Amino acid sequence: MTLHSSAKDQLHTIVARIERLEEEKAALAADLKEVYAEAKANGFDTKALKKVIAIRKQDEEKRREEQAVLETYLHALGMLADTPLGEAAVARETAAEAA
């Protein structure tokens, strides 16, 4: 298979753009690694930070739905009732049942 000159030029351009973006992605990954290392050095839990970032990326409605399901499961397993979050969930459930 032979490519025409214009197709070859377009292919070179696309490959060059992809390579440039891959380099930028690697640089950003290194920057993120440094920021997480800085956070860890300052006493922050990096796993928790990653979860916070993931939560902030979510749509608010989706986040609320997932939280409600999680609370339901934890409550059903008896893992939530003795925490402030659990007490709020129990109060919300009791209020819903009373209505």
Automatic annotation (TrEMBL):
Keywords: Coiled coil
Name of the featured protein: UPF0335 protein A7A08_01682
GO molecular function, one term: DNA binding
Keyword ATP-binding: no
Lineage top rank: taxon: Bacteria
Domain GapR-like DNA-binding: 7-78
Sections of the chain in a coiled coil: 4-38
Species this chain originates from: Methyloligella halotolerans
InterPro entries on file: GapR-like, GapR-like_DNA-bd
Family affiliation: Belongs to the UPF0335 family.
Pfam families (alphabetical): GapR_DNA-bd (PF10073)
